[in-house]
Here is the input.
Amino acid sequence: MTETLNRYGLWILAARPKTLWAAVAPVLIGTAMACESGTVAWLPAFAALFGAVTIQTGTNFANDYFDCKKGADAYNRLGPIRVTQAGLVEPGTMKLATVIAFSLAGAAGIYLVWRAGWPIAIIGVLSVLFGVLYTAGPYPLGYIGLGDIFVLIFFGPVAVGGTYYVQALKIDEVVLLAGMAPGLFSAAILTVNNLRDIDGDKAVGKKTLAVRFGQTFARMEYLFSIVVASSIPILLYIRTGQHLYSIFTMVVPLGALPTVRKVFTSRDGSVLNNVLAATGKLLLLYSLIFSLGWVL
Here is the structure.
C-alpha cells in the first residue's frame, strides 16, 4: 500500500499540481461568460476542463522529460524535484505518460470537435504541439525566450475563447479581452519559475526572458502581469457598460502584496516556490471573483 501511495505521489509531483490552476481558471471564466450570455452547455464545459487539465499535465510531463534530456534540471536546482532527472521515473516511462496524457486530451477533443468544428481541432493540435515544443526540438520555446508569449496566448484568450466557443458556438472580442487576464497571471507564474531558476538556466544556455534581461526585468514583469490582469475588468466595463461587480478583482493586487515583496527581495528557492504556489491561488481567486461578478 505504501509503495502504491508513493508511486501515485510521484506522478502527482510530476504533474506539478500548483500550476494546474492555469488550466482550470480560463475554463471557469469562459463558462461564466457563457452562462451570463445564456449559452452555457455543461457537457462541453466539463470536456473543455478535462482537456485543459490533461494538456497541461501532458505539457508538464513533457517538460520533465525533455528538460532532463537537455540537462536543464540539474541536481542542484532550486525548484521542486523533477522526477525524471532524480531517477525516480525512467525516461521511457515519462515519455509514455506524456503520450497517455495528450491522448486523454485528444479523446475529449474529439467530442468538442464534433460539437464545435474545425476551429477546436486547430486549437487542440496547436496546444499539444506547442506543449511539446516548449522544451523539445532544436529551438524549444522555453529556451529561446518565447515561453511567456506562449503561456499568455494559450492560457489566456485561446483557453477562455475556446471554452466559450464550444458552448456558445460563437465568439466576440469581449471574451478574448477577458482571456488576457488568466494569460497574464499564468505568465506571472512562469516569471517566478524563471526568476528562481535564472542561474541554472544561464548555465545550460536556456535563454528565458529572465536570463536575457535580468532579475529586475523579471520582477517588473511579475508586478506588471498581476496589476494589468486584475485591471482588465475595468476595460471590459468601459467597453460594455455592464458587469460592474467584476471590477472587484482589483482586490487581488492587494492580496498579492506579500508575493510581490518576496519577488523583489528574495532569491531563495523555497521562498520563490511558495510565491509560485501563491500566484496560482491568486489566479484562482481572480477567476472566482471575475466569474461571480460577471454573472451577477
